[in-house]
Amino acid sequence: LAKTTQPISMDSYEGQEVNITCSHNNIATNDYITWYQQFPSQGPRFIIQGYKTKVTNEVASLFIPADRKSSTLSLPRVSLSDTAVYYCLGSEDRLAFGKGNQVVVIP
Amino acid sequence: DTAVSQTPKYLVTQMGNDKSIKCEQNLGHDTMYWYKQDSKKFLKIMFSYNNKELIINETVPNRFSPKSPDKAHLNLHINSLELGDSAVYFCASSQPGTGVSYEQYFGPGTRLTVT
Prior knowledge:
A: five-stranded antiparallel β-sheet
């Protein structure tokens, strides 16, 4: 299975842009990269997915370099409600959510 | 309408008891999953069913037995509960396709506390 690694925790102030980078050292040719967001006391929810370059939706942007060995989730102008755990997955390890990255937004 | 639902939301029980958690999805998905999330937020796959057939069993003790009466339901039965089974259990579903990754839809979770 492809394995992804990501940092554990980070704090950010309201209004700032938050970038979370994930490593995908063993990503396969057919793997997509997917990010999930989990609020306290809720199940994870899909936020964005990409294969290469940049993908943007109403929630976030996802940057994937040409070698696809990493991905960066960008949350523009975070608010308190963006406090959550963020998980990155490659398609082949889509079931290995791991510990995720705790983002805490501070007023 | 709730896409993936679980019952109960909270479950408190004593060691040694047997309990079940139910999951239903109304998304028409073929694949359903059970995950366990511990107190440190580590989210780990336990089982996956596709069209009522078990396709993933991640070295879970055989005290845990999933049952899928139809592709819209995946229940989790746990025998002889232990303290270490205390966790939040999430059910999820997805619809595999070609090319695009499998977006999973999660239920609200069942918080199991074993005393």
